[in-house]
């Protein structure tokens, strides 16, 4: 029994952006022999994979800021109940470390960990500290980030920050060694478009028209692979056909890592997972932030890519067929621009993010 490693509790729930890094860390810590448990809200029952196999405790959780007076009261009561539940469970389980991944599902557990004096840390997926993590940042011992620069990290807690990166799937890491294939004046050009869970509509509206405005020589060399919402798939296919463009369109691709490996340019939203995957593989990107994302965090994610020369930020209001066509014409006409962006993207990637996160946990346990 003395050979058993300590228990680490993960607090996660909600969207995949919060859950995936928790799953990656769980997998890495299991390899290192740690015992794990998951604290989540009522949605925790839907998890599969590594998280689905963990001992799971479901506690009450509410939004950090409810809407209206009664919403705020309800959120406060849920938070108080969840904190009480979590503190009682922590007292029974005696973890050596508690790790939160943002979102309101993590808040009660992390507050309880702070009140109980347990070593704790949070992971922030975006280049803006989320609202839940902003609340928790002063209470934890370590803040792990996916980006080197993160908004809303203050001088008070800056000494506790560790840049670990955002974990990606193992099959994304597997294609990192695939070299970027430069284009010349005659080679085919592969463009990949990933719409993400929100906002694929604008890509269906803009991209066929933008590609149609390219010079005939470029259009003939172009092959487009695009993710579309099911409800606009047929009309988008028709738009590409009408403009004489070579395109493969589906609502979902199960081979995104392979598609990234062979692409010359990605056009996508700027979610944390998308940014992490494209930089892990080392491919240039045009990122169009979802303008309604909380705290405009996708713009900050895209800016981080643009700033290091790994791609280009295009605000949605500037994402028009004419402007995009001019940008693509310039990029494809100067292959060195793409090659330099690919190299910068590869340099920016953090394929060892899960390992770095696990190292941070172990350092916290040893303190």
Tell me about this structure.
- 45% of the residues lie in helices and 16% in strands.
- The protein is of the alpha/beta class.
- The chain folds into two domains: 7-167 and 351-366, Rossmann fold (3-Layer(aba) Sandwich); 173-348, Rossmann fold.
- The strands form two sheets. Strands 3-2-1-4-5-6-7 form a seven-stranded parallel sheet, sandwiched between helices. A six-stranded parallel sheet has the order 10-9-8-11-12-13, sandwiched between helices.
- β11 (265-268), α11 (272-281) and β12 (285-287) form a beta-alpha-beta unit.
- α3 crosses α4 (107-116), α7 (200-212) packs parallel to α9 and α11 (272-281) packs across α14.
- The longest helix is centred in the N-terminal third of the chain and has 26 residues, at 68-93.
- The model has no long low-confidence stretch (mean pLDDT 92).
Catalogue the unreliable spans.
none
Name the beta content range.
15-25%
Q: How does the major sheet shape up?
A: 7 strands, parallel
What is the domain total for the residues? 2
Gross geometry? elongated
Write the layout of secondary structure elements.
Elements: E1 7-11, H1 16-31, E2 35-40, H2 49-52, E3 55-58, H3 68-93, E4 97-100, H4 107-116, E5 120-124, H5 131-136, E6 142-145, E7 161-163, H6 170-174, E8 189-194, H7 200-212, H8 216-221, E9 222-227, H9 233-242, E10 246-250, H10 256-262, E11 265-268, H11 272-281, E12 285-287, H12 297-307, E13 311-313, H13 321-333, H14 335-348, H15 353-366
Parallel strand pairs: 1-2, 1-4, 2-3, 4-5, 5-6, 6-7, 8-9, 8-11, 9-10, 11-12, 12-13
Helix pairs in contact: 1-15, 3-4, 7-9, 7-13, 11-14
């Amino acid at each position: 029994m003395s050979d058993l490693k300590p228990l680490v509790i993960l607090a996660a729930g909600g969207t995949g952006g919060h859950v995936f890094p928790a799953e990656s860390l769980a997998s890495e810590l299991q390899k290192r022999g740690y015992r794990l448990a998951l604290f989540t809200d009522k949605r925790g029952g839907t998890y599969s994979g590594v998280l689905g196999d963990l001992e799971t405790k479901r506690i009450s959780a509410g939004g950090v800021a409810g809407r209206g007076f009664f919403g705020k009261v309800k959120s406060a009561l849920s938070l108080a109940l969840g904190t009480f539940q979590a503190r009682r469970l922590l007292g029974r389980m005696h973890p050596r470390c508690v790790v939160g991944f943002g979102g309101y599902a993590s808040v009660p557990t992390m507050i309880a960990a702070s009140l109980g004096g347990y070593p704790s840390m949070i992971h922030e997926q975006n280049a803006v500290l989320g609202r839940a993590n902003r609340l928790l940042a002063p209470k934890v011992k370590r803040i792990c980030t996916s980006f080197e620069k993160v908004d809303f990290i203050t001088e008070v807690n800056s000494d506790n920050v560790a840049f670990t990166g955002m974990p990606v799937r193992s099959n994304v890491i597997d294609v990192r060694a695939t070299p970027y294939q430069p284009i010349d004046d005659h080679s085919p050009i592969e463009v990949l478009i990933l719409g993400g869970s929100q906002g694929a509509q604008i890509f269906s509206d803009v991209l066929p028209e933008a590609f149609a405005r390219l010079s005939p020589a470029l259009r003939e060399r172009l092959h487009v692979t695009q993710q579309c919402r099911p409800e606009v798939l047929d009309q988008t296919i028709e738009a590409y056909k009408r403009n004489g463009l070579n395109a493969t369109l589906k609502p979902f691709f199960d081979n995104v890592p392979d598609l990234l490996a062979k692409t010359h340019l990605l056009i996508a939203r700027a979610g944390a997972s998308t940014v992490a995957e494209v930089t892990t593989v080392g491919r240039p990107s045009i990122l169009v932030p979802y303008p309604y994302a909380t705290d405009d965090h996708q713009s900050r994610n895209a800016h981080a890519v643009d700033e290091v020369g790994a791609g280009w930020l295009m605000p949605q209001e500037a994402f028009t067929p004419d402007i995009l066509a001019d940008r693509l014409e310039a990029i494809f006409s100067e292959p060195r621009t793409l090659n330099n962006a690919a190299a910068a993207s590869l340099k920016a990637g953090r394929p060892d993010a899960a390992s770095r996160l696990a190292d941070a946990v172990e350092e916290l346990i040893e303190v």
